[in-house]
Each structure stands twice: as C-alpha cells, then as structure tokens.
Amino acid sequence: MTTKILALTDALGNLVRFRLMPGQRFDSVEVPSLIDGLEFDAFIADKAFDSNAIIAELNERGATVVISQHPRRSKPLLLDREIYKWRHLIENFFCKLKEFKRIAMRTDKIDASFSAMTYLAAAIIHSQ
Fold first, then answer.
1. Are strands 42-45 and 64-67 parallel, antiparallel or unpaired?
2. Distance of alpha carbon 66 from alpha carbon 78, whole angstroms
3. How many CB atoms lie within 10 A of CB 58?
4. Nearest to residue 117, comparing CAs of 100, 105, 96?
5. Nearest to 67 by CA among 80, 122, 34, 75
6. Nearest to 82 by CA among 37, 40, 42, 126
7. 3-state class of 34 per DSSP?
8. What is the sign, positive or negative, of the torsion defined by CA atoms of 86, 87, 88, 94?
9. pTM of the prediction?
10. Cβ count near 45 (within 10 Å)
11. DSSP-assigned states of every residue in 46-102
12. How far from chain centre, in Å, is Cα 78?
C-alpha cells in the first residue's frame, strides 16, 4: 500500500495542515476535514479537487475558488489564471518535503511516526 499526503499551505507555501491518506483514495475526500475551522480568502488547487461539493462549500464560505477545471465539466467555471500561477508554491513545498529520505521512501511504517517526521521536515523547511 502507498500513502498520500494531502497538504494545505498558506500564501507563502508554508505548511498549515496535512492529512495522511491511503494511496488509492481520492484527494477530494479529505478536503472538508482539512479546511475545517480555517478562514481563508481563496482556495487554489488542481483538477483533482474539482468537485461540486468542494466548490459549494467554498462558495458558502465566501472564498474565491481557483481550481483548474476537469475537462468533462459541463459548465466550466471561470479560472483566474494569474492567481492560479501561485499554485506552484504547494508543488515547491512537496519538492522540498521529498528531499527528506524518510518521507520520500516512506520508511516510517506507523502513521504517527510518519506524521511526526512530516511535521519535523515542515519545520525545517519553514526555518530556512
């Protein structure tokens, strides 16, 4: 089995919160628990998060939805391409995170120790 890390970063690309998920699970399933209790003005994500439920919740919160649309969407939403360019910050975070061998190779077999290593790596990344 594989493990996915679903991460939420701030506008500077620093880790705010993350969830560990089984590798075969859809990313969008854990988004409500990831954003629960947080206030933000915009949500930037790729097409894996193009879900009517997520978009409805973000609209309810008054957040700007900047999600790349899935090509099969019947009524595409407007996408602010200038804001979407900032999505590279989350990709940069994951690239930095994967520089830590224990995370990249998933050598920690217990979720608690893998999570702890992820927090430690995020703290090191943030301090640089």
1. parallel
2. 8
3. 21
4. 100
5. 80
6. 42
7. helix
8. positive
9. 0.82
10. 21
11. -GGG--HHHHHHHHHHT-EEEEPPPTT-SSPPP--HHHHGGGHHHHHHHHHHTTSHH
12. 21
Single-letter residue type at 90: I
Tracing tokens 């019947």 back to the chain, one arrives at 74
pLDDT in tens, 98-117: 999 999 988 888 999 999 99
d(CA 70, CA 47): 5
Spans of the chain, pLDDT less than 70 = 1
> For the chain, how big is the Rg over CA atoms in Å?
15
Q: May I ask the CATH class of domain 3-127?
A: alpha beta
Cβ neighbours of residue 12 closer than 8 Å, sequence gap 6 or more: 89
Q: How many residues does the chain have?
A: 128
Name the helix (H) or strand (E) containing 127: helix 111-127
C-alpha to C-alpha distance for 115 and 121, rounded to whole angstroms: 10
Name the residue with tokens 């927090």. Answer: 119
